[in-house]
Amino acid sequence: MGNKPFHYTALTKEKDLDVLLQEIGDARVVMLGEASHGTSEYYTWRTAISRRLIQEKGFNFISVEGDWPECYAVNRLVKGYPSAGSKIADVLEVYRRWPSWMWANWEVAALVEWLREYNKLRRQEEKAGFYGLDVYSLWESLEQILLFLERNDGQAAEAARLALNCFEPFNRDPQTYAQATAFVPTNCEHEVVEMLQKVQQHRKFNNDPEQDFNTRQNALVAANAEKYYRAMISGSANSWNVRDSHMMETLDRLLELHGPDSKAIVWEHNTHIGDARYTDMADNGMHNIGQLARERYGRANVRLIGFGSYQGTVIAGKAWGAPMQKMEVPPATGGSWEDLLHKINTDDKIILSKDLKNVPEVQDFIGHRAIGVVYDPKYEMLGNYVPTLIPERYDAFLYFDETEAVHPIRMKSRGAKEPDLYPWNY
């Protein structure tokens, strides 16, 4: 490929992001990816980009690949709501479900501190928010709904109580629920749908628009989580699509909440934000939030920005629910996207997809590294490279030649009994 076969911008300081901000232009949705859930540079540079998008382009919120109840607690902290807590590390302890290090880390703490300071001098409607898009929090969402409705609406609370009671025999174990409903025609779908309808059709519960939205969102999470866990048993593509469709639905709802001119930042793994139509995911009938956003809002209004690295260290677990550990990430395999970028030189780089049009090596599908929360470097070649048409999957890409592991806020994670149902762990 020569020494510099295409234009790129060396990435050494925040000012170098100017080229990326110019490429983002007037887009309404900017999705910032990551090639792992445990790499410090991905969090740090996503924070730098997000700060500039909020300050310079008026973006309203950051939405992440995290659960709604936990992220909403962080949202209330950064917006200064009463009784939201004051110590950031204490509030981040809400992230106790494995893998806790994804959001309970010092890189996220720095982002939260910046958001809180940014919001202090702004009116409530001008404050930047922090929300979770994911669908895993079935029991937590049900409990929050019941707690709130018991104080505000007895009829709706009864529906929530019936839904929660329906799940009690499964001991907070999604795998137990999924396997039980696969062989018995009885499940809790009716109870959660009825609860969702009661919550959505009722009057507003108070004068706090976010608390009202929070209650309705928890009801939606519960309904879609039940659907997700049932879908797991019938095939990974089906459950993946339920999950990403829920994340897209939540993004839509957040944009609607913030008004017709609102703008959103999304932090998720590359496998979610990079358009699935330009990977082998499409062959398996899978879609993702990046694809759905382009289809929903138009390609000109969405910017998908991938992240990746050649080698370094990462936080991950050897199995689902296993203790987190710092692992070595070996040099990228020969012929992969990361290997090609490394062979140019060892610069950290910003690459715009429009500058890849005359690069023959990326006009066809090429291996592109993806590390999940479960990782073993010895078996990387067996499933950690996603065939990708890079210039179409992303609008831009941030490459780091050597990266280091994220820095967790040490705490004990609540384990999970879910490995058999999660062949994709992104």
UniProtKB/TrEMBL annotation:
It holds the Pfam family Erythro_esteras. CDD domains: Ere-like. Transmembrane segments: none annotated. It comes from the Bacteria. GO terms for biological process: response to antibiotic. This is Erythromycin esterase family protein. It comes from Pontibacter mangrovi. The lineage of its organism: Bacteria, Pseudomonadati, Bacteroidota, Cytophagia, Cytophagales.
